[in-house]
């Protein structure tokens, strides 16, 4: 009984052989996840577009390096995270994370409150070290499992757990310092 290949397998093989249509389809299938991940790390949808373009150029140039026994998506996340972190290193004066995220709030007052809370969280996340922020974005925004994050970042699962624990505590601490009412509230 033959094992079914992952949906990307044929496209990857065709793209590696130089088929631009197959590569275009890979880009179409994975562009949004690359954009979300990059935006979460670099904090700007405009910069995320630039990172995504760089990511897909790198993927095209390195398709021969991809090991089909591994997950294409993990390989793609690894490239995305590395390119986004490189962008941050070049920039260093970080901007807040994704300012144009949609709001499901009702009424203008509630929308303003929710937008302010989201901005505070994005600002707190932006203060995290690059590698810690990448782990948090992959977990909370991309909903990857610890195993998938470990594969994407090429780190042990224990390190993923440690980074996520640190990230969550750091964000909570930053948010608590920013909201004096929270620190006065009974525990």
Summarize this entry quickly:
The chain is mainly α. It has helices spanning 8-16, 20-42, 45-62, 72-91, 108-126, 130-141, 146-153, 157-178, 180-184.
Distance between the termini: 59 Å
What string, H for helix and E for strand, traces the elements in order? Answer: HHHHHHHHH
Discrete helix count: 9
Cα-atom radius of gyration: 19 Å
CATH class type of the largest domain: Mainly Alpha
3D architecture notes:
This protein has two domains: 1-95, Rna Polymerase Sigma Factor, Chain: A; 103-187, Orthogonal Bundle (Arc Repressor Mutant, subunit A), CATH 1.10.10. Mean pLDDT is 82; it is low at 1-5, 93-105 and 182-187. The chain is globular. The chain is built from nine helices and no strands. It is mainly alpha-helical and 187 residues long. The protein starts with 7 loop residues before the first helix and ends with a helix.
């Amino acid at each position: 009984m033959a094992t079914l290949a992952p949906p990307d397998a044929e496209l990857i093989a065709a793209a590696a052989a130089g088929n631009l249509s197959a590569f275009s389809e890979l880009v179409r299938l994975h562009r949004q996840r690359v954009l979300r991940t990059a935006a979460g790390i670099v904090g700007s949808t405009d910069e995320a577009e630039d990172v995504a373009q760089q990511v897909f150029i790198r993927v095209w140039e390195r398709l021969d390096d991809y090991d089909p026994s591994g997950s294409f998506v993990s390989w793609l996340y690894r490239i995305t995270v590395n390119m986004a972190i490189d962008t941050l290193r070049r920039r260093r004066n970080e901007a807040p994370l994704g300012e144009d995220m949609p709001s499901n709030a009702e009424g203008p007052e509630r929308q303003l409150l929710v937008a302010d809370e989201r901005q505070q969280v994005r600002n707190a996340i932006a203060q995290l070290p690059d590698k810690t922020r990448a782990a948090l974005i992959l977990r909370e925004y991309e909903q990857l499992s610890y195993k998938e994050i470990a594969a994407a970042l090429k780190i042990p699962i224990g390190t993923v757990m440690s980074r996520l624990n640190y990230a969550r505590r750091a964000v909570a601490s930053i948010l608590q310092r920013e909201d004096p009412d929270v620190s006065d509230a009974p525990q």
